[in-house]
Amino acid sequence: MADDLRLNTDLASALAEAEARYRAANPKSLARHEAAAQAMPGGNTRTVLHYPPFPLAWAKGEGATLTDLDGHRYTDFLGEYTAGLYGHSNPVIQEAIRTALADGIVLGGPNRYEAELAVELCRRFPSLELVRFCNSGTEANLFALSTARAVTGRAKIMAFRGGYHGGVFYYGLAGSPINVPFPTVLARYNDAQGAVAAIAREADDLAAVIVEPMQGSGGCIPAAPEFLAALREACDRHGVVLIFDEVMTSRLSPGGRQALLGITPDMTTLGKYLGGGLSFGAFGGARRFMDRYDPQRSDAIAHAGTFNNNVLSMAAGVAGLTRVLTPDALASLNARGDRLRERLNDVAARSGLPVQATGCGSLINLHFHRGAIEAVEDYAADAARNARRSQLARLFHLDMIAAGQYLALRGFMALSLPITDADCDRLVGAVEEFLAVRGPLIESAVG
User: Fold this and answer.
1) 223 and 352 co-located in one domain
2) Is 289 in the same domain as 430?
3) Of the ranges 20-29, 128-137, 375-384, which one carries the lowest mean pLDDT score?
């Protein structure tokens, strides 16, 4: 950062200067954004990828490096919101896709890869006796919840504030007008007593409880093991289907966070990197639920989806799980993430500023907050403070981009296999400089 940035005396002027610098540095991304806005609302077809004043547009990705249309290079710490675990150019994944592509796509029938991928997933994840594929984590959660409602004959679902289970299952504090209109009970995350009481109260018409073993969009907030254990016991007692949304957390061990904690749900939903970086989703669980999808049964539930067994996703998924993502590779990745989180927290502690990094393994979220974070209400309930922190997050994001570090506007990071210790060193240095330069603004914004 240039020395003159130190002259900014308030958050608004600092942000204005950073945005002006960003606009001047990225004319081709700006032009692309303006052209896209002629055919897409706001130039956007995926809300999370927009950030003000306009998003960078990518020309190329290689390993853990992104190059934008203006030729700037960045270390990719976003990792496509966990879907980019393999990086942008893993040769094993690329060769699997090329082979499948050469053999023909949209085949209109079973292919040689899907059963192999299903067997591998069932081998890895303790809850999966049977599994079916779909096209995204959103679809996986829709099908899992619909399965629970169909099998139990009950209507309601229970979720947790701050939870994100896809584009039509968003339970942030403001809610979403396009959520699927299932009757929904909301509870506080990590509040075992409150959740157990709600399950008991709603049990007669409660089909399922869906929970992320670590809230991702909610800020990388890990579920306490005793919280998940309490959900498991309460669901057993009342005949409620417990669904773990491991779309993000599946990468925290070869068997997801359920294997790490030894807590097995009735059903699990998956997505993201498990298709090798291509479109992918999966839902599965105990045979007593999944058997209903056997088309040979007289009472079979039909599950359609033209691209459920998309040959490219199936081939890439098999290659990734059987040839790249070994237990040792995954352990190394998550250990690197734990070290990075610890270093970021050490830097924050030395600065004396209200900054902290949360998460598990290779998933990290940087927060401008003072005090413990166990649920989204802990840091996002004050509207005035949220407005200031939103400006601060924008400033941090732009300063990281200026330093060649790419992460989510909300401070989220998902490490990929090609990320190195040297990459982490540079990120820590950039964050350390931001804290040194912007310290007074952080203090005034957080309060």
Assistant:
1) no
2) no
3) 375-384
Provide the residue count of the chain: 447
Q: What's at 155, amino acid-wise?
A: A
Helices (H), ranges, 247-374: 256-261, 287-290, 311-319, 327-351
The residue from 68, 76, 191, 245 that is catalytic is 245
Instruction: Tell me which residue range forms the domain holding 428.
Output: 3-76+327-446
Among the listed residues 81, 113, 164, 171, the single catalytic one is 164
**What's the pLDDT score for residue 248?**
98
Indicate whether 223 and 155 sit together in one domain.
Answer: yes
Same domain flag for 344 and 415: yes
Q: Does 85 fall in a domain?
A: no
First to last CA, the chain: 25
Task: Mark whether 100 and 218 lie in a shared domain.
Answer: yes
Final residue in a domain of this structure, among 276, 309, 324: 324
Up-side HSE of residue 36: CA atoms within 13 Å toward CB?
17
Is 138 in the same domain as 279? yes
Give me the helix-helix angle, 421-446 and 383-402, nearest 10°.
150
Residue ranges of the alpha helices (H) in 55-172? 91-102, 114-124, 137-152
Catalytic annotation on 294?
A: no
Identify whether 60 is a catalytic site residue.
no
From the candidates 272, 379, 399, 423, give the one annotated as an active-site residue.
272
- Among residues of the chain, what percentage have pLDDT more than 70? 98
The answer on 95 and 72 residing in a single domain is no
Mean pLDDT, range 15-24, rounded to an integer:
97
- Greater pLDDT, 383 or 415: 415
Q: Is 245 a catalytic residue?
A: yes
Each residue of 162-216: pLDDT tens digit? 999 999 999 998 889 999 999 999 999 999 999 999 999 999 999 999 999 999 9
